[in-house]
Design goal:
alpha/beta; Aspartate Aminotransferase, domain 1; 7-stranded mixed beta sheet; 5-stranded mixed beta sheet; globular; binds pyridoxal-5'-phosphate
């Protein structure tokens, strides 16, 4: 070929094989090239024995899928563009018009919003159930129920459910369960051993660890269930970018170290805050008196977790009723190291105030619905500096009357 433009597209140089480095390579593709027509016709996008199209997998995404499956203790994984997309992938793969899905009352908010929006529009109904009460779940399972969502602990309000008992109730009735395991990150407890059929995670949180990537995973042990999820994934076009996958691959080796560090720091700060007169309730499953503490203890201590157990770097506090929400807002604004922002799992400590009344279905709420709730995600700053930050901001709380 004599034209440079053609030579630059079809260059003859092939680098030597056998390159080995600690970090997997980044393979970027929409198009995947086949050696011949027979190969093009023979290739099956459903399996990891070859490549068909970037959306269905590259060496980079296959490697990340296998590592996330290992993290969760599962066999198959599909990657999706966010944690919420993982929830959507499960709903769309397993539900049809006329079906019903049951969601914990204290679930991650957008899971409920998806049910109230698109699922309802498509003729799929839902009910919220009390995640702390397996009898409530049992009573709500009906002939239309096809899927039960599980989450531990509840989002923001942090009640730790009797997970295995909930999963067993669904199993008794032959209903598939899907666990949102973002908090546990595959480290604090084993979602499959707890009875879940599908385990999803927002890789956006601890697996990414940087606050800079959005991604989700859907993991299964069952081949047929995986194929259903993979089929919906293919039809929906829920692929992930190679650079994002590479970022998560780079963060994964340190996830357990980071998770334990976030956990230790959060427990130190939660223990300190709990003693303060401004705080009415601490919501952290590893603390006695927090809703579902015994369930956390049963699931997340012992084995690799040790006697101290494992918990994410996440907790909420409810301020004493004497503080109006404007005062709690002033506390949040006064924080300097804790920054205001959603999500968690990265190096920066974060804080968000929430209105408790909107967090739980009033009919199911079992604990005081008074006082303003603030959720903390503890990052990787020095604990002493974070404690000093909380202390100075508590000063602003009483000042802002
Ligand atoms: C953050 C989060 C999600 C959603 O993850 P995104 O990547 O932000 O869509 C889902 N479930 C839980 C429990 C989460 O904390």
């Amino acid at each position: 070929m004599s034209h440079k433009s053609t030579d630059l597209v079809h260059h003859p140089y092939v680098p030597p094989a056998g390159f080995l480095a600690p970090q997997p390579g980044v393979f970027k593709a929409s198009t995947v090239i086949f050696a011949n027509v027979a190969a093009l016709r023979a290739r099956d996008w459903r399996y990891k024995d070859g490549y068909t199209y970037g959306l269905h997998g590259t060496p980079t995404t296959f490697q990340l899928e296998e590592r996330i499956a290992t993290l969760e203790g599962g066999r198959h994984c599909v990657l999706v563009p966010s944690g919420l997309a993982a929830i959507a992938n499960v709903d769309m793969a397993l539900l049809a018009a006329g079906d019903e899905v049951l969601i914990p009352d204290n679930a991650y908010g957008p899971n409920k919003a998806l049910a109230e929006g698109e699922l309802k529009r498509w003729g799929i109904s839902h009910q919220l159930y009390d995640a702390m009460n397996p009898d409530d779940l049992r009573a709500r399972i009906g002939p239309k129920t096809r899927l039960v969502w599980l989450e531990a602990p509840g989002s923001v309000t942090m009640e730790f459910p009797p997970l295995a008992r909930l999963a067993a109730v669904a199993r008794e009735r032959g209903v598939t369960t899907a666990l949102d395991n973002t908090w546990g990150a595959g480290l604090a407890f084993d979602g499959f051993a707890s009875g879940a059929d599908v385990v999803v995670q927002a890789l956006t949180k601890y697996p990414s660890g940087g606050g800079d990537v959005l991604m989700g995973s859907v993991v299964t042990r069952d081949d047929a269930l995986h194929l259903k999820l993979k089929l919906a994934h293919m039809r929906l076009g829920f692929g992930v970018g190679a650079n994002d996958a590479e970022t998560v691959l780079r963060s994964l080796p340190s996830i357990e170290l980071r998770y334990r560090a976030h956990d230790r720091a959060a427990r130190a700060l939660a223990g300190w805050l709990r003693q303060r007169p401004e705080i009415a309730h601490l919501l952290h499953p590893a603390f006695e008196g927090s809703p579902g503490h015994a369930n956390w203890k049963a699931l997340c201590t012992g084995g690799d977790a040790g006697g101290e157990g494992l918990a994410a770097g996440l907790f909420s506090v409810v301020f004493d009723e004497r503080y109006a929400s404007a005062q709690v807002d002033a506390f949040c604004d006064a924080l300097r190291l804790f920054r205001l922002g959603y999500s968690w799992g990265g190096p920066v400590s974060l804080v968000v105030p929430y209105d408790i009344a909107t967090m739980r279905d009033a009919r199911l709420a079992t604990w005081p619905n008074k006082g303003v709730l603030v959720r903390f995600s503890v990052g990787l700053e020095a604990v002493e500096d974070l404690r000093a930050d909380l202390e100075q901001a508590l000063g602003a709380l009483s000042g802002a009357r």
